[in-house]
Design a protein that fits this description.
Radius of gyration: 16 Å
CATH architecture of the largest domain: 3-Layer(aba) Sandwich
Strand order of the largest sheet: 2-1-3-4
CATH topology of the largest domain: Rossmann fold
Length: 216
């Protein structure tokens, strides 16, 4: 049986992402939950060397499960994930790897929606890197509303969703909308319907990337 070790930083993502992984069939799933890796950058405004080292330790712990693949579900961590990848003998997937590649394929005017400031810079950088790899110039417009993530953490999903739709309504001129965080994924269809703009989030695309790796 194949096994997957996941590192999560937002509690509400764990159940949703685990359920998505079940579509891969009979797989063993190990979960590490480390909210400090997202709450500390949110408070300090940076992903510090201490955060980087903590993520390394989490990834080492994930590898010690004997997993066939390690998945990190938080976009804030993605730049460090990409730096740490070469240290591991198993595939390491960042949640937004596949999403940013698809975004730059869909258009040059990209709207990036986020609910945590700590995610904005990593997601923006990832989109630029994907565009460079594809040989494209992109125009990225960013909107972030941290009140939404606070509402979600406080159990007010309706408020969270309402604020995301308000941000999306301000992106009418974009070719594609990107929902920066996995916690926003349940809004993908609603945002696309409300705006008429192709909208993408990371979890489903990440699952397909995992499937390809496991079957490869």
């Amino acid at each position: 049986m194949k096994s997957i070790a996941c590192i999560h930083t937002v509690y509400s993502v764990i159940e949703d992402f685990t359920n998505r992984l079940r579509v891969l069939g009979d797989v063993k799933i190990h979960t590490i939950y480390d909210d400090f890796l997202v709450t500390d950058p949110a408070e300090t405004g940076k992903f510090s060397s201490v955060n980087h080292q903590r993520l390394r330790l989490d990834m080492q712990a994930a590898a010690l499960t004997g997993a066939d693949i390690i998945v990190v579900s938080c976009s804030t961590l993605s730049p460090s994930v990409r730096l740490l990848r070469p240290e591991f003998n198993v595939p390491v997937v960042a949640i937004d790897d596949a999403m940013v590649r698809e975004a730059v394929q869909k258009g040059t005017k990209i709207g990036l929606l986020a609910t945590a400031n700590s995610t904005v810079k990593p997601s923006h950088s990832a989109l630029l890197a994907a565009a460079q790899a594809a040989g494209k110039d992109v125009d990225i417009r960013i909107l972030c509303n941290e009140e939404a993530i606070r509402a979600l953490k406080g159990g007010n999903r309706a408020k969270h969703d309402e604020l995301i739709l308000e941000m999306a309504a301000q992106m009418k001129d974009r070719d594609v909308l990107v929902l920066a965080q996995a916690s926003m994924a349940l809004m993908e269809a609603k945002v696309a319907e409300a705006t008429g703009i192709p909208t993408i989030s990371s979890p489903d695309r990440c699952i397909e990337q995992i499937r390809e790796i496991l079957e490869g």
